[in-house]
Design a protein that fits this description.
It is a single chain. It is built from 14 helices and 21 strands. Helix 4 (107-116) runs parallel beside helix 5 (126-143) and helix 6 (159-166) runs parallel beside helix 10. The chain has helices spanning 34-45, 47-54, 85-88, 107-116, 126-143, 159-166, 181-193, 197-206, 215-218, 221-235, 254-263, 324-344, 387-397, 427-438; strands at 5-6, 24-30, 57-64, 81-82, 96-99, 120-123, 147-148, 172-178, 237-238, 245-246, 265-276, 279-290, 302-309, 313-320, 361-362, 364-365, 372-382, 402-407, 415-422, 425-426, 443-451. By secondary structure, it is α/β, with parallel strands linked by helices. It folds into 3 domains: 24-156 and 325-357, Rossmann fold; 159-319, Dihydrodipicolinate Reductase, domain 2, CATH 3.30.360; 369-451, Alpha-Beta Plaits (2-Layer Sandwich). A hairpin with a 3-residue loop joins strand 13 and strand 14. The strands form 3 sheets. Strands 8, 10, 11, 12, 13, 14, 16, 17, 18, 19, 20 and 21 form a 12-stranded mixed sheet that branches. Strands 1, 2, 3, 4, 5, 6 and 7 form a 7-stranded mixed sheet that branches. A two-stranded parallel sheet has the order 9-15. L-homoserine is lined by residues 180-182, 217, 222, 321-322.
């Protein structure tokens, strides 16, 4: 029986050799970290079910791991493990390469090499697909191979397949995603326990949720990578991370969260995409959303993607956006789908992005200056007569209408917070107004958060 044959204990078929058994689908794993381990566990745990679903068994035929020491508890046979992924991805017996190294290189070169060698590829690598997806999907199309990437957005939440297939009969109008569990968890702790950002981040790091270097998550870049893929699937537009307006959560204060609550809002890091008659809005930033909205209840490390479709209306997809087994389920679903196509002799993945290769093109992306939002404004101002009037007059001159104001009782210091909620205005007007307000002697600082009132 071949090396990592993952079939049921009670299988009675005679042993077969690796190169001739059509009832085996051979999988190579690049990276046996958290998610890779999860894939190995699912391959074993569900071997019988997969065999029934597929009419063939999966064979874990090789594992490339930088450490050469995947978790010993997995009990992987040492002959399966290699430090030479380049040789593994072109091995003639391999059918499907599962790329879980993450990052750009060597993941990119290995995926291209695997596709060119006739392998199908499954990946969870949003950073790579967001930056280099066009090259990878074009190569897959040229080679007649598939790229599965369900695990790249929302972990175990099946949003890729949903946008590509389940919602394919409708036009998508907008997508709002809570797609970074680290940020959502930090904001939840700040909201529920009244913790400041730095303390909530430390807690997330201590619990193993946040990385030692959390920049990619907390500054919104991970969410921006995921948004690029959502935009392509929802609108057929190719988008690179550099074109996504990206702002993280590190400047959100406990005070902002409290004022948001007083105004009836919750603060979430949202990845937002809208199709405004062909002009695509694509932005990631802390956003105030109404506390009664479904997305406001998505707490902790959970993810949710709220999709507005023209005929269907809103739908929401919710679940565990990270973690070993949740993410591994998405990887497994791709492996299974690709294996089904291979066995049927059909070409899966020809429309991996929901469109034929070449039909996904760069689109017109709206400038942030033209994006229209309502805003929460927080000024720290000297507690003296005329402050409110001066601020209101600058806002008025810039065509920004005030919807409500919170001014606190006089405090101990020389400045007081002045909180305003505005009606809708283009961001260009807001920036001009804030520049003018910064010149007022009586205003010491200002901050703003965009509000999505009608999502
Ligand atoms: N770091 C991501 C998050 C999980 O915090 O959601 C992987 O995409």
């Amino acid at each position: 029986m071949p090396a990592g044959h993952l079939t049921t204990k009670h299988r009675t078929e005679p042993a077969v050799t690796a190169h001739t058994d059509a009832r085996l689908v051979r999988v190579a794993l690049l990276g046996c970290g958290t998610v890779g381990e999860g894939v190995v566990r699912l391959l074993r745990r569900n071997a019988e079910m997969f065999e029934r679903k597929l009419g063939a068994a999966f064979d874990l035929a090789g594992v490339a791991d930088r450490s050469l020491r995947p978790n010993p508890a997995l009990g992987l046979e040492s002959r399966l493990i290699t430090r030479d992924p380049a040789s593994l991805v072109i091995r003639p017996d391999i059918d499907i390469v599962v790329e879980l190294f993450g990052g750009q290189e060597p993941a990119r070169s290995l995926m291209l090499k695997a596709l060119e060698a006739g392998k199908d590829v499954v990946t969870a690598n949003k950073a790579l697909l967001a930056e280099n997806g066009d090259e990878i999907f074009r190569t897959a199309a040229k080679c007649g191979r598939a790229v599965g990437f369900e695990a790249s957005v929302g972990g175990g939440v099946p949003i890729i397949r949903t946008l590509r297939e389940a919602l394919a009969g409708d036009r998508q109008l907008a997508v709002y995603g809570i797609v970074n569990g680290t940020c959502n968890s930090i904001l939840s702790v700040m909201t529920e326990a009244g913790t400041e950002f730095e303390d909530a981040l430390r807690q997330a790091q201590e619990s193993g949720l946040a990385e030692a270097d959390p920049t990619l998550d907390i500054e919104g870049h991970d969410a921006a990578h995921k948004l690029c893929l959502l935009v392509t699937l929802a609108f057929g537009v190719l988008l690179k991370p550099a074109r996504v307006f990206t702002e993280g959560i590190s400047r959100i204060t406990r005070a902002d969260i409290n004022y948001a609550r007083q105004l009836g809002y919750t603060i979430k890091l949202l990845a937002i995409a809208k199709d405004d008659n062909g002009a695509i809005e694509a932005r990631v930033h802390p956003t105030m959303i109404p506390r009664r909205h479904l997305l406001a209840d998505v707490a902790g490390a959970f993810n949710a993607i709220y999709v507005h479709s023209e005929a269907l209306g809103p739908t929401m997809y919710y679940g565990q956006g990270a973690g070993q087994l949740p993410t591994a389920t998405a990887v497994m679903a791709d492996i299974l789908e690709i294996a089904r196509h291979r066995r049927a002799g059909s070409r899966g993945g020809a429309h991996a992005l929901g469109y034929p290769a070449g039909a996904v093109r760069p689109g017109s992306i709206k400038r942030m200056d033209d994006v229209v939002c309502e805003y929460y404004l927080r000024f720290m101002a000297r507690d003296q007569p005329g402050v409110l009037g001066a601020i209101a007059s600058v806002l008025g001159r810039n065509r920004i209408s005030i919807a409500s104001v919170i001014q606190q009782e006089r405090g101990v210091g020389s400045t007081v917070p002045v909180i305003m909620r505005t009606h809708e205005a283009p961001e260009r007007n807001l920036k001009r107004a804030l520049m003018a307000i910064a010149k007022l002697k009586m205003v010491e600082s200002s901050a703003f958060i965009r509000i999505e009132e009608r999502l």
